[in-house]
Structures are given as C-alpha cells and as structure tokens.
Design brief:
By secondary structure, the protein is mostly beta strands. It folds into two domains: about 190 residues, Cupredoxins -  blue copper proteins (Immunoglobulin-like), CATH 2.60.40.420; about 140 residues, Cupredoxins -  blue copper proteins (Immunoglobulin-like, Sandwich), CATH 2.60.40.420. It has six helices and 25 strands. The strands form six sheets. The chain has a six-stranded mixed beta sheet with strand order 16-15-18-23-20-21, with no helix packed on it. Strands 5-9-14-13-11 form a five-stranded mixed beta sheet, with no helix packed on it. The two termini are about 35 Å apart.
Length: about 350
C-alpha cells in the first residue's frame, strides 16, 4: 500500500509499547500481563472465532465508562427538537456542550480528550435543506471554544470571531444549506490542538425531497490521536476507537443497499483514504450532487473533505475496509463488513 511502511510501523509500535507502560505506571491502568499495547495476529476477534486480519489491541475499552460506543455512533443521527416557526419553516434546536473528559482509546490507555456532548465524534446533526438550525452552545471546559460549521451561513455564525469563554453560552442560528454532507469543529487557537483532541462532528443536510431510500446509513468520521503530544498521530481511527469495527464487524445482508457518510478530520497528516475490499461504490464528493462522480473502490480525502459512498454486496463473506496507507491501517483505521445471505 505504501513503500517503506514497515520501518514507520515498527517505530510507532515500539513507541506505543513504551507509552502503554508509562501510562499504566503513572495512571495505575494496567495492560495485559507480559503483552504490549499492540499485538500481532495471534489474538481472535472479540466476537468471531477467526484470526485477525491486521495487528490489533488486546482486550476491549470500557465503552460504558467512555459514554459512547462506535457501533452506536454509526447510526446515531440527531434531528434535534423539531418545531414549526410562524412562517412555516421547520426549526431544529440542539444543545451542545464542550467539555473535558478522559477517554480510554485503547485497553489500558486513557486520553485527555475535549468533546462535544461527551463523545467523539460529537453528535451527528441531521437536518433537511431549508430548515432553521438553532444551537445553544455551552462552553463547559476550561479553554475558549467555538463551533465552526461547513456550509453557507452569516459571518457572525461562523465560529471564528465569536469565541466562547469558559462557562459562557452562544446561540448559533442559520438556515441549513446546501444539501450534502458537511462537518463542524472547534475553530479556536491553536486549531490543531482543539481539533485533534476531539472537537468535531458530522453535519448532514438532506435534499428537500430526501435521498433515495437505502437499507443502511452509517456515519464514519476519520481522525487520529496523538497520545504523547508530539504533533504526530499514534492511532488512526474511525469514530474514535482503534480497530473497533475489526473486533465488531458491521452486519449486512447480501443485496442490502448501504450509504456511508464519510468525513475526514485527521490532523497532523496531509491526507486520508478509504478502501473497500472486493467491491466498488458510487462516490458523491461532499454529497452536493445526486449524480455520482465516480465508481471506484478507493478514494482520498484531505482534512475537511467528505463524501457519500453507496454500495451493496453481491456475495456473502467478511470484507475489509480501511485506509489504503499501511501505517494508518496497522495503527487502528481498519474494519470489517460481515455479509450473510439474505
């Protein structure tokens, strides 16, 4: 997938092993006896009696303690509190709280994250084109924060100049446009720190008449974690937890139609990617057109780029999806679709 990846991966694995021991010693969080943080291929999947296809972590993180589970995040769309304004326009209201929280991103390894509503990624905000969006944003953290939405809105609602101080509240109001897949993130300085620590989420605006019906819709937000704060990622993830969908494959049936809302918010690396094994998908960059731009099995995204993927599986089996860069895949950005007969 990329030349010379072995030296990079080995360097990172050794580094992560050291980090794991250090964190365990300082925080009192232990790893499995005699094992490094990242294992080889000798461990079975958590729920599958089959060998792992990639390196992996030992055991499971505590999803309950984290307050979110990546499997749930896939299909957790937040339509807000819906009402109708006097002019007949649909209004959707949200309350978003920025906070600071320790998240176990790998077994025995806690990370001092910054979150929207206590989760990474933040809530997947979903509306329809033309809806009025009203967000009460409370900064419950100890640093100034904001919410910057990708889309079309007034400058005073852009999350850049209206920095929200700790304990303060700001109301964001704008009409949802254009239709497509967008995102939001903190726009406070230093941006790299605020974004890489977890302050981001997906923002979906449906066309006025909606998208064609599919059997499954999934949100996947690609990012990473710099656990030793050297401005280089040590884990690469989809929906926050490394290897989660490798341990917990996404369940599908043959012939079921799938729509994936894919967002890249990865910091410290120039580009990210998505590769689907043994299949092709229609790709809609930014989701602002109802006509796909290409039919492919691999796409690349810069930070802030996003797109919609649509596909179905012809045959039963277990199919990988992952970043088509070996370092990213071996450090967490990999998963499986498990497809069974209809």
């Amino acid at each position: 997938m990329n030349d010379g990846h072995e030296s990079v991966s080995r360097r990172r694995f050794l580094k992560l092993g050291t980090i794991g021991v250090t964190v365990a010693g300082v925080a009192g969080v232990g790893l499995l006896p005699g094992r490094s943080l990242v294992s080889g291929q000798d461990e079975p999947h958590t729920n599958m009696d089959m060998p792992m296809t990639m390196p992996n972590t030992n055991g499971e993180v505590d999803h309950k303690a984290n307050g979110f589970n990546p499997t749930d995040i896939l299909t957790d769309f937040d339509g807000g509190k819906v009402s109708t304004l006097p002019n007949g326009q649909t209004q959707r209201e949200y309350r978003i709280v920025a906070g600071e929280k320790s998240i176990e991103i790998a077994p025995g390894l806690s990370y001092a994250a910054w979150t929207y509503n206590g989760r990474i990624p933040g809530p997947t905000i979903r509306a329809r084109e033309g809806d009025h969006i009203k967000i009460e944003f409370l900064n419950g953290a100890t640093h100034e924060h904001s919410m910057h939405f990708h889309g079309i809105h007034p400058g005073a609602m852009d999350g850049v100049f209206e920095q929200v101080q700790p304990g303060e509240t700001f109301i964001y109001e704008f009409d949802a446009e254009p239709f497509g897949l967008h995102l939001y993130h903190c726009h406070s300085a230093p941006l790299a720190k605020h974004m890489s620590k977890g302050l981001y989420g997906a923002f979906i605006i449906e066309p006025k008449d909606g998208w064609p019906k599919v059997d499954h819709e999934f949100v996947m937000v690609m990012s990473g974690f710099d656990v030793d704060f050297d401005m280089a990622n040590d884990f690469y993830v989809v929906n926050a937890i490394p290897f989660h969908y490798d341990k917990h494959p996404i369940q599908l049936k043959v012939g079921e139609t799938v729509r994936v809302f894919l967002v890249n918010i990865l910091e410290f690396d120039v580009i990210n990617s998505f590769h689907l094994h043994a299949n092709f998908f229609n790709y809609f960059p930014t989701g602002t057109s109802l006509t796909p731009a290409e039919y492919t099995d691999t796409i690349a995204q810069m930070q802030g780029q996003r797109g919609i993927l649509e596909f179905s599986y012809k045959y039963p089996g277990r199919y990988m999806f992952h970043a088509h860069k070996t370092e990213f895949a071996e450090l967490g950005w990999t998963g499986l679709f498990e497809v069974t007969e209809a």
